[in-house]
Amino acid sequence: xxxxxxxxxxxxxxxxxxxxxxxxxxxxxxxxxxxxxxxxxxxxxxxxxxxxxxxxxxxxxxxxxxxxxxxxxxxxxxxxxxxxxxxxxxxxxxxxxxxxxxxxxxxxxxxxxxxxxxxxx
Length: 121
Fold this sequence. Notes:
Layout: H1 6-30, H2 40-43, H3 49-62, H4 68-79, H5 84-94, E1 97-100, E2 103-106, H6 107-120
Antiparallel strand pairs: 1-2
Helix pairs in contact: 3-6, 4-6
């Protein structure tokens, strides 16, 4: 079997890079866009914004006097640059939970979902 030349390897490698880059660009161009909100830094912490908004609608039905600006400020200070998974685990271990439609969620996650719902509606 004949060994590939350097030129063939470079062409093949370049083709792979172009295809991979095209796939990434296509995903970025085709993803759903949302109008900017003052809470995007918090909502971006969850992967599925639409799913978070659906959960958030249920959370909002359970939470009285939800004021988004004050809640966002509270969440930002609570998270303070830490990974969301750690904050959620801390909520669960400290018993800070919210109920939403029969589901029990860590408070931080539930409130971020509520912000997503407010931002969507």
